[in-house]
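Quarterly update from the structural biology core.
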Amino acid sequence: MHLVERDQELASLTDMIRSSARGTGQVALVTGGIGCGKTALLAAIGDIAKEFGFEVRGATGSLVERHTPGAVLGQLLRDIDPALGDRAMSAGMTDGAGSAPHGTAGTVARLGPDTLDAETGRTLQSLCAAVEQQARRTPLLLCLDDVQFMDELSLHWVLLLIRRLSDAPIALVMTERGLSRPADPRLRAELRRRPEHRPLALRRLSVGGVAAVLVPYVGATVAPRLAAECYSVSGGNPLLARALGEDTRHGAASTTHAAGRLVVGDAFVDAVTGCLHRGWPALLHLAQALAVLHEDRATAQTVARLAGVEGAVLSRGLRALDDAGLVADGRLRHAAAATAALAGCTGEERALLHRRGAELLYEEGHARVVEVARHVVAAGTTTAPWAVDQLREAAERHLAASRPAEARLCLDVALRHCRDDGEQLRLKALLAGATWVLDPTMGARHLVELADALRDGRLPDQYALVLAKYLLWHGRYVEAADAVERIRRRNSGMTDPLAAAEARATRELLSVTYPGLVPGGVTDTDTARQVAFAGDPRTRGAAALSDVLRHGPRQSVVDTAEAAMRAMRLGRNTHEWLTCAVSALLFADRTEAAAAWCDHWLAEAHRRQVPLWIAEFSSLRAGIALRQGRLCEARALAEAALDRIPVESWGVCIGGPLANLIHANTDLGDHDAAAEYLEVPLPPGLFDSRFGLYYLHARGHHYLATGQPRAALDDFVNCGTLMRRWGLDQPSLIPWRSGAARAFMALGATDRAHALARQQLDLAGDGLTRTRGISLRVLAATSRPSQRGALLKSATAILEQSGDRLQLAGALAELGVTHLRSGRDTMADALVGRAAQLADECGAPALAAEFRHLLPTRISPPGARDAVRTQPLDLLSPAEERVASLAAEGLSNKEISTRLAVTVSTVEQHLTRIFRKLGIRARGDLRQDRALAG
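Predicted structure, tokenized:
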């Protein structure tokens, strides 16, 4: 093995070999941390000594054999003089030199090296003489590894040998690990007074040295890039650096780790485990204490008490761990080292360590509450009387810091140990809040009990705010009604301004989310809106949404929503109001601004790793993407929302992601996928919430696209009825009249369709908004052919500016058909071609193909178009042609279905496509076409 950064030590030892070869004995003690290469250095100098003609003998001390007389001596001197060796062992056993722990029994253990009994002393002297004689025949290198574990009998012999080295061709090289207990002081004292002694200390590697160690594993190009990080983890310990190299090499060969990244894996853990278990038990106990307290800022005294060691042992042990590169600044360098330290502990042993850790940290003071709770949770059980209070306070801190998973763990353990009924209710209320953002279903099991306790007065009214939100989410409106009423009563007598702001913000939130159940918080007066907009940013966010839903888009709404978001950070007390503010921008037709803000909050939710926040912002962003015509993106975001939170956990809010998925798949032409989402069971109370409106509109859109105009009309009209009832009849929220108008057109009721289109345009206002563009488009479809061109031209200009590429594609295609019927073929080609291109970009190839089919003569030879244009049947499929001909004759849908032996629904689907392809708005237009009328 190539030794890195050990050239100086090798040079010194090589010089020592030369001196010994000339008959001047030498001795060296090599010290260094565990794993720093002492054994490898012994092997290297052994190879060099052999080149100089030396015989090399080695022995290794072992903690297990520390009290076995002659354990090291027997390894070292086998075959030199077996008889003398046996006599030495026998004398050592007779003296009891290894029969008891150091300092407790036996002659050698009690007395110094000069007080051996005569028999043992003479035997050891004879062994030294035998070694000298052997060395005079062949120079001798004796390598003693881990002398800190050398037994007493062997130590006496080594001390005798050192005194006789000066004129013998013997080199003695010993290594000593830095441990919590050093080697025997008699050895060190003897070495200090010997002029032939060479002390060598192996340091940990530099960053450059670590890079050299990594080269065989990851190559010369990657090694320098990983060296600094590897040094940070290994501390420059060669053994640990090689283990990291092995982990990284194996990781690069797998698919779970990115190439060129340092991997801390099993090899590293095994290496650390080996280092810790090769030392004194006190060192392992110290490492285990550091592992348990790894995430804490524990004092040295707490570490020592948990490890069960005294201060002096703590100091030496920390130094030994630092020498081995395992700790830095009194802490383990890496979590994997903590894993290794605890690898040999049973579950009960770990629990005991955590319980003791909790007790010690609790004694340090109140500021340790989060750390104390973490250890109580890790222990699982406790009898400490302070545990429940500490767990509850820690949970509250976790919730305030947006760490709901940690809060839930604290509250689960607290509930298991709490015996007070009132405290249990408060803990359950906190638990409902903690689990809410992880998965709303998890906290639902406590809602009925909490609602009963609130009604009976066993739960303080302060919990009515959050409880109302949870109950409404799950559609438990009876229980929620009482909580909402308590909020109202509490508002009237509230003196705490912070509590009053919380109550106003919550009520405003509920009024815009559940308008069928909670009356609006902001009235229709400008003064009331100004008061709401000037308060707490949460209230302002919800009030902005309320204002745009009840009064339509305006600049003040945009300003208020953005100002509210700039004043808030994402957290458990803000995320719902942030979604309100983003929604206010969306319904104010500021799609681009809504997308930018939503992307910001979605990224923050991902950073915080809170499932509910990720799911809600993903669903909201999907709705924004739909309004931008980004169909594939909308579908992916809505699917991601359902991946984060399962369908059954969404409560009434499931209407949002389901509506996005139904709408997106319908526009993409994947009607089967849309139909599957229509099969998802709906929660009770969905249609008392704003999310029910989204669902009705999306379902109606699907029905209309699949040739079911009557079912579509029902959904659009029901949606409009709810919006009018709740005072939210704004087309920027949901343009239900557009859908209803197209359904009426498919059913032949053109006049009713035109009236709805005109109403929607009036409600949309004069602003150049997406809503106005959609309204102009549907108005054109219901108007006379002579009026369509101007309306569609205005619609395309507005939709281009609004950013809705799918609506723009539809308007361009319809404008192209208008030009086609007027004989402007070149303009028609350009418009329909661009419409098809936009549809492709939106991810709707089926729609793009349908647009291209509007121009069946685009590749016809010159001069053929005028003739073909007089044959509108060429625009239709054979089945559509048959339906169109019968409708032109004046037959009803039922009569056509009977004549063609198809269902009425099939006839309606064909007529929807016929009207769109021919650019007509009523059945009467079919009768005016002579080709169709026969």
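The mean pLDDT is 85.
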